[in-house]
Amino acid sequence: MVVAVDCLAPAATDAAIAGTQMSDSIETLLQSMSLTEKIGQLNHPNAHTDVTTGAGEAVVDIETRIRRGEVGSLAGGAELPRLAELQRIAVEESPRGIPLLFTFDVVHGHRTIFPLPLGLACAWDPELVRRTARIAAAEAAAEGIAVAWAPMLDVARDARWGRCAESPGEDPLLASVFGLAMIEGYQGKDLTRPDTVLATAKHFAGYGLSEAGRDYNAVDASPYRLHNVVLPPFKAAVDAGVGAVMVGFHDLAGIPCTAHRELLRDLLRGQWGFDGLIVSDYTAILELVHHGVAADTREAAYLAFSAGVDIDLVSGLYLRHLPELVAEGRIAEAEIDVACRRVLRAKQQLGLFEVPYRGIGEAARSPAGLSAEHRDLAREAAAQSCVLLKNDGTLPLARNGTTLALVGPLADSRANMQGTWAPAARPEDSITLLEGVQAVAGEGCRILHAAGANIVDDPDLAARLNVFNETFTIDARPPAELIAEAVALARQADVVVACVGEAKEHAGESSTRSEIGLPGNQAQLLRALKETGKPLVLVTMSGRPLALEWEDRHANAILHAWFGGSETGNAVASVLFGDVNPSGKLAMSFPRNTGQCPISYAEAPTGRPIEKIGIDVRGDHEVDEKGRHVFRKFTTACRLEGPHTPLYPFGHGLGYSAFVYGALELDKTALRGEDDTLEASITLRNTGAVAGEEIVQLYIGDPVASRSRPLRELKGFRKVALQPGEEQRVSFTVCVDELKFYRADRLAAPERVWEPGGFIIEIGPNSDDLATATIDWEADA
């Protein structure tokens, strides 16, 4: 189901000649360099004066360092004349005239901001992802940036973890498809083009499994889990030709990834054949001392370099300690050559030796504003990322003759629309929901507005959420007064739309939450609005799944908009009024409450399966929507406070069309040998009144294997557009490759196997609503 993209290779007829010429010029340059100059290429210091993350200190006189050949790369994002001057010093005044690499966090757009990666993944549309990355790369390259610290490919299953906002979600296949599309969009097929950037797959590996969802925390995962859940997106990225891999901050079963030789040298380099850049995360080499595996900074530098880290991001320890480590014979200069060669080759692939001032020359100009073309794509992406979680028919909203009360602290919160990790964004570029509704609703709709609540009421928490710039202020009025104002407007309205959720910095790096419900007094606001008796539509915004159990029971409709970026307001309004039929599906399960975290659809069967063993509890009459008891003693369903299931499962998402799935059809149920294939099909019919798109999902289960396998795993999906009354046969071809898994007793010795036997084939609209059939696939005689 995953197609690798050749992002870096020259045209086939020229590949051998081009590769030889590149290699010869790099070797000539390398032979002329001193040891200090070679190590300088591995040094990525912080040249800014405001340190916002990590423990690194800014280099005050960066110009002198560059003149001495001690700097290989720097963070971009400064004014273009400043970057141009630093590049001029590197090219004209350093010993070998080697240009600098400028890097930046281009995570979900640059100046034009697209939905958070977790939101964009909910579109299940790799072509849309590729297009957004293409524009992000062009905008970043136009400001001198050559390396993007993205895509982030950490599979995330714990909504407490703030960095799930940057993740493609909980599933390795969906994350792999997302990563492939991002890499293709960033890198294109020719990195010398002025509108491309080198992509970086991060954070290698297992960061999304941080214990308790606490950022930078330890991860204890078996090779089996790593190879089957965590590593597939990174392997797909390497196969696609990603230019760099960034190492995770965390320790993996006691070994910090920055010092993990088996992970970096044996697996990434040896098994996978990756020969691009391996980059530390921000000050991560210094942090080996804090991890307790290095007695001092000298030992930290030795451990990181020996493990295979090429570029030291910000700590400065390579520059300080590698020369003496070479002099002592602990590190061979030939190994320094290997790492330096990779850096030089990356600069050559980017065309920097020929055009060192690309994006920052005299002709370069920062755009005055966002182009219409870029806004159009931002609006399309934000609308496609919205997930309609619930709807009783209240949506879409009527226009003419309607009075709408638009309330909530995020309804008119411009800076928060961009979401976390959008460092090049400008708040004035964003469209708020209030502005979008006013523009889309038309003159026949009367719109009333009040905030109704603060995002949070705690000043200390507000200061933390405003860490990178003020994105909201606390209204000093008592919460009861704010709620009363909103309720008064609601009583005048035909429909109430409440825009509630997190501030943008509730998610992102170092933003763990211990409770993932609506913060502050927003829940009290919703209860008061519900008491008015008016239809209540929620637009929820966040960088993570939220716990919305009360909201699901009491709201008439819930549209989860994540943070949609520059065009959030227009996009969400177009969905609310039916100009866009929502088609997004969840890339990450929504738990009922925080205590269920982490949660995933791909759970293990366990020795006490949910549906097969246990007793009903006398006097307990609570059942789910399918009539099944929600509490069964002595099974893994034994959560005392309610159902064990997610509130909204992976793959869930509604629309304004009504799609009916036909019976699951298989072209055969008995298969033999590795060359056989299975065709699994359903007929999908749009019985609704409007055209729509449905994402049909294929899952496979392996009920008897040498390892306890997940109940089901996503193995394919199709996005199908149907007119009212139209039907289409949707087919998936299943090969033995979809049945394989990693036994992986050792991290660097993965064994990918296919074990003949029985398999379960499932197709449906989400991971919980599936038609099922069984097959028997035997080995050749």
Q: How would you describe what is shown here?
A:
- With 781 residues, the chain is an alpha/beta fold.
- Among the domains are: 244 residues, TIM Barrel; 120 residues, Immunoglobulin-like, CATH 2.60.40.10.
- The protein is 28% helix and 17% strand.
- It is built from 21 helices and 29 strands.
- A six-stranded mixed β-sheet has the order 11-16-15-14-12-13, sandwiched between helices. It has a five-stranded mixed β-sheet with strand order 21-29-28-23-24. Strands 19, 20, 22 and 25 form a four-stranded antiparallel β-sheet that branches.
- Helix 2 packs antiparallel against helix 13, helix 16 crosses helix 21 and helix 18 runs parallel beside helix 19.
- The chain is globular and about 75 Å long.
- The two termini are 28 Å apart.
Give the helices and strands, then pairings.
Layout (H helix, E strand, L loop, with lengths): L14 H18 L2 H7 L1 E2 L17 H6 L5 E3 L4 H14 L7 E4 L12 H5 L4 H16 L5 E2 L23 H16 L12 E5 L18 H8 L1 H8 L4 E4 L3 E2 L2 E2 L4 H11 L5 E3 L7 H5 L5 H11 L4 E2 L3 H11 L5 H17 L22 H14 L1 E5 L10 E6 L25 H9 L3 E6 L8 H7 L13 H14 L2 E7 L20 H9 L5 E6 L7 H6 L2 E4 L7 H9 L38 E2 L15 E2 L25 E3 L3 E2 L3 E3 L5 E9 L5 E10 L11 E10 L4 E8 L6 E2 L9 E2 L3 E10 L2 E10 L3
Parallel strand pairs: 1-10, 2-3, 3-4, 5-6, 6-9, 12-13, 12-14, 14-15, 15-16, 21-29
Antiparallel strand pairs: 7-8, 11-16, 17-18, 19-22, 20-22, 22-25, 23-24, 23-28, 26-27, 28-29
Helix pairs in contact: 1-14, 2-13, 2-14, 6-7, 6-15, 7-9, 12-13, 15-21, 16-21, 18-19
